[in-house]
Amino acid sequence: MDATSYLRFLFLLMAALLLLLFVRTWVRLPSLTSDSIELDCSEYGSLCTFKNRMQGGRSGGFIEKSKPPNFQKVNHETEAANHPLDPLTIQEIKKVKKILSKSSAFTHGKFSLHSVVLEEPLKEEVIAWKAGKKGLPSRKASVIAQVDGYSTQLVVDLGLGQILSNEVSHSSGYPTMTIEDMTSAVKLPLKSKEFVNIITKKGVNVSDVACVPISLGWFGVAEEGRRLIKVQCYSSAGTVNFYMRPIEGLTVLVDMDSKEVLKITDKGKDIPLPKGKDTDYRLVAQKYPLLPPLNPISIEQPKGPSFKVDGHQVKWGSWEFHVKPDPRAGVIISDASVKDPDSGKLRRVLYKGFTSELFVPYMDPSDAWYFKTYMDAGEYGFGLNSMSLDPLNDCPRNAYFMDAIFAHSDGTPYVRPNMVCIFERYAGDIAWRHTECPISGLEIREVRPKVTLVVRMAASVANYDYIVDWEFQTDGLIQIKVGLSGILMIKGTKYENLNQVGPNDELHGTMLAENVIGVIHDHYVTFHLDMDIDGTDNSFVEVKMAKKTVENGPTPRKSFWTSEKHVAKTEKDAQIKFSLYNPSEFHMINPSKKTKVGNPVGYKLVPGGTAASILDHDDPPQLRGAFTNNQIWVTPYNRSEVWAGGLYTYQSKGDDTLAVWSNRDRPIEKKDIVLWYTLGFHHLPCQEDYPIMPTVSSGFQLKPVNFFESNPILRTAPMTEKDLPTCAASIA
């Protein structure tokens, strides 16, 4: 080889090496250099595709076409119930409307339907069906309506085609508002010349006005006898986040039935409209460059999900349960049973669990704020305000989405698509592990990954967003978690900086921006938990951790603690306020069922989110929210005692709440009993909550306690490399 040929050879070799290095670097950095890269997962029959999905050339995440879930989309027009607790179908709601239309009250009177849901069969009927009794119990509908100004509860038999009962309420309060109530109320101020004149003087264009309906609680007889609501408005000029531009102090009192504006109050004449600068939270409104993205993450399931959904019944691992969307509760989990690893039999744990009420009192006693003490389920409908979930962002890939069927105020059914999602979660957590230390001489390392199943919903009740997860674990534990996000309800102020605030000025919150205060408030989420531990006859046990003092003992120890079990005989024994320095465990047991060594089988409540109300008990909002006076209550099972704030919560006085029921002090030992738990949050806003809040979460657990003979997941296998797909990047 001559010198020229040798140099040519070296040049080509170096060029090839440089090209190879470039290609390898390019493939390793797809988020920076490529709009489309494929990941070859052909060994597992899946294809992973990276796509650019952000504006301005910013890259998104891997969008993988892994093995699709084997879920069939439901045809709601032909859907039929196959479980006693299945929600009403479209055809059944249409039938309810037809049956009601034949009633004289609905033919000649003025009416609106506020709730059309399943009238659930008796518990014993459901249990008998579960045990093998053929045929579903008769299908019935429970209807709550306003008929000629009266709150009315009806039961409609769909098989017989007739109204079985029609009960007019004589207690305080009205039904949950309908969507039509709320949408019509917010339009009324704009029809008032007085209102238009006021906002015009404040420099607000009518075309920019956005209004929200605010429940007014109950503050005396002056507000009784009419379904009232207060409306407050904002300016959307310059931002879609109109909550950041309140027309402070301007309140409109509206009659929801007569559609009248009754009173307009303006207490904010000296308060400027906040500018709302940089408050638009949408991606398209963000300034470039955006924050550097994290590398994409995707949890792959090459064999598809491990759970199965049949209508509303879910099976996963050792769990079987029923999921039902509900216009008031959001999601109802029923008929939850877990398979015993030794006997292989399903054992009952939870007959029914759901969000019973959400109480949100704000801590500003001024004229435009004192009444803001919301009951988000009983007044607005937690399910009615549950929005369609966003695939890949609200819920991961391979999630199953469940629609809800609700009814308009005239009885016409409609579909809320993707209201609930169900998915398996793996976040690198550990189910159990042990590594033997070197001094033992044993080389042992046993670890098992924790995979869980999540049932999720998200509600947007005006400005606030709530995310509720029911998470099932393979060891029999159920974790209920609530996340808070969305937008603060803020107050306009004349101040632009804290240095302008005098020592005697009360802000009732935190200054977040010029002319903007985030008002202090609480969130209390009360859960109804009808525990059936291996049957219905259960007892509630408070296991107190009692300190013992040792005097002149055989060792240097001077103290220790032991457990003291106190079985609640009546309801007042089970009214529990938490105390950090007087700790207890809270067990629901079946005293007639015992383990081999003699312990009664049970579950325990593991508290979390323990913020408690510190309002006076005779304060009108707290009278209505008296179910938050304790963190735990236990009541005997009663089909009519479902909603912690009462059946008719809107404008109620608090005369039909969980606190009222519990004070009857009925026997609860060895009875069919219901556990109630309130998850609490105190929220003192901070600037990081502005203009939209990062999610803050808390929750509690229902954990087996002597329910199994030993660790129920002892015989599970660890994960190995061959169980998982290996994806190698390649050029598309």
Using brief descriptors, characterize the structure shown.
single chain, 732 residues, mainly beta, Nuclear Transport Factor 2, Chain: A, Beta-galactosidase, Chain A, domain 5, 3 domains, ten-stranded antiparallel β-sheet, nine-stranded antiparallel β-sheet, 10 helices, 37% strand
Structure at a glance:
The protein is 12% helix and 37% strand. By secondary structure, the chain is mainly beta.
CATH homologous superfamily heading of the largest domain: Copper amine oxidase, catalytic domain
Mean pLDDT: 90
Question: Which oligomeric state applies?
Answer: single chain
Q: Looking at the structure, what is the overall shape?
A: globular
Radius of gyration: 30 Å
The class by helix and strand makeup works out as: mainly beta
Q: Biggest sheet: strands, sense, closure?
A: 10 strands, antiparallel
Please bin the fraction of helical residues.
10-25%
Strand order of the largest sheet: 18-19-22-23-24-35-32-31-29-30
CATH architecture of the largest domain: Distorted Sandwich
| Low-pLDDT segments | 18-68
CATH fold type of the largest domain: Beta-galactosidase, Chain A, domain 5
Q: How many DSSP helices?
A: 10
The CATH top-level class label of the largest domain: Mainly Beta
